[in-house]
Amino acid sequence: MLTRRGSLLLPLLIAGCGAGGERRKVFPPLRYDYLTPLRLNVASIQIEQRFVPSGVAPDVSQYARVSPVQALRTMAEDRLQALGSSGQATFVIQNATLTRRGDTLSGNFVVELDIYTTPDNRAGFAQASVSRTFSGDLDELPGRLYDLTKDLMDRMNVEFEYQIRHSLGTWLLPAGAPEPPVQQQPLTETPLTPSP
């Protein structure tokens, strides 16, 4: 037999058990602005997405808390800097696949960085690819996909930087290179007069 006090505490105990048993995992955005920036001797950087997830099995990227395509785009935005006066770099997302076959998840990411001195003249390029698989409990699929994407992106940041330094080293500016000048607008020659 429950006392009045016991009957008041029972819903709190049940709620507390439910909250503890259903802890929700936090999926913070994947950012890379804490890594060494890659300072390119080009005037602009463009991002092209040439890969589109199919959205049908075995593709499972639609269940990922952080889209692989968005993670790769964020990497380019966070790490690539255009500090030159001419030319263009094009960051190309060629593959951002997450698939599931049975109890195995697979990921395959491929990107390319192209350097153009003119719109029709590609002066150099670097390509980076990473892949990874996970086999095991997939009951919490979004969490597993997040962890797989994060691991692939950690690997991609290392591989991408290595490939750029190896293949496009002459297009990298040293850390001490000056920032591009800020465009200035001439001030009006008419002096401001205080309002009466």
Explain what this protein looks like in three dimensions:
There is one protein chain. This protein has helices at 4-21, 68-79, 141-167; strands at 38-40, 44-49, 80-82, 88-101, 104-118, 121-135. It is of the alpha/beta class. The strands form two sheets. It has a four-stranded mixed beta sheet with strand order 2-4-5-6, with helices on one face. Strands 1-3 form a two-stranded parallel ribbon. It is elongated and about 50 Å long. The N and C termini lie far apart (84 Å). Residues 6-22 and 182-196 have low confidence and may be disordered.
SSE blueprint and pairings:
Layout lengths: L3 H18 L16 E3 L3 E6 L18 H12 E3 L5 E14 L2 E15 L2 E15 L5 H27 L29
Parallel strand pairs: 1-3, 2-4
Antiparallel strand pairs: 4-5, 5-6
Comma- or semicolon-separated keywords:
6 strands; disordered C terminus; alpha/beta; 4-stranded mixed β-sheet; 196 residues; two-stranded parallel ribbon; 29% strand; single chain; elongated; 3 helices
| Largest sheet data | 4 strands, mixed
Distance N to C terminus: 84 Å
- The percent of residues in helical segments reads 25-40%
The overall average pLDDT, rounded, is 85
What is the N-to-C succession of helices and strands? HEEHEEEEH
Strand order of the largest sheet: 2-4-5-6
Shape: elongated
Strand content: 25-35%
